[in-house]
UniProtKB/TrEMBL annotation:
<protein>
    <submittedName>
        <fullName>Transposase Tn3 family protein</fullName>
    </submittedName>
</protein>
<dbReference type="InterPro" id="IPR025296">
    <property type="entry name" value="DUF4158"/>
</dbReference>
<feature type="domain" description="DUF4158">
    <location>
        <begin position="12"/>
        <end position="169"/>
    </location>
</feature>
<dbReference type="Pfam" id="PF13700">
    <property type="entry name" value="DUF4158"/>
</dbReference>
Length: 193
């Protein structure tokens, strides 16, 4: 992974402006990706799948924010896919109440790129890594960025910042799990009783 890509990892929404380099890097598609996109029934859904593929490639996570999509991105996608640019501005106008279609497009996007959700085994590995990484290190500023880099490099969808911060808290050396604290409290009550 190139160092310049780190700035995009874990973003929740598409930046207001994308330059030509960003459009070409993230929103230009391989043959395999085009085959998946072209298999959609309507031009709007082709644009939707293309948008999701580019977003996962750029950020390592799925696009679920209903913010405005830049016109330059719609134009670029339309040109790439050979369809007319939409008169849409947001994902909400594309999907409306069809959340199943939105979820389907998100899954198609991350699967074609080889991404998958984090498993429990991988989460435990990340916790062990954090415990080792945090021992003797008072500075935790860059840790969130490193926690986004590892999943992206291993083709695991990046979780929301809230969950990543919770993992950092759980990974602090000397921190016991809730089950350990509960068991310790119960034993203390039994011994004291």
């Amino acid at each position: 992974m190139e160092h310049w890509q780190l700035a995009y990892l874990g973003m929740r929404q598409i930046p207001d402006e994308l330059n030509e380099f960003e459009l070409a890097t993230f929103f230009t598609f391989s043959r395999k990706e085009r085959g998946l996109i072209d298999a959609r029934r309507t031009d709007l859904y082709r644009l939707g799948v293309g948008l999701h593929i580019g977003f996962v490639r750029m950020t390592g996570r799925t696009l679920d924010a209903y913010k405005q999509i830049p016109k330059a991105l719609w134009s670029h996608l339309s040109e790439q896919l050979g369809v007319d640019p939409p008169g849409l501005g947001t994902l909400r106008s594309l999907y409306g109440r069809r959340t199943d279609t939105l979820v389907d497009h998100q899954m198609l996007a991350y699967q074609v790129l080889g991404f998958r959700p984090m498993t429990e085994h991988q989460r435990r590995y990340v916790l062990r890594w954090l415990k080792e990484h945090l021992s003797g290190r008072p500075e935790r500023g860059q840790l969130l960025h490193e926690l986004k880099r590892w999943p992206y490099e291993h083709r695991i969808l990046i979780a929301h910042d809230r969950l990543l911060k919770r993992l950092i808290v759980q990974g602090r050396p000397g921190r016991r799990s809730r089950a350990d604290r509960y068991a310790g409290t119960r034993l203390w009550r039994i011994d004291a009783g």
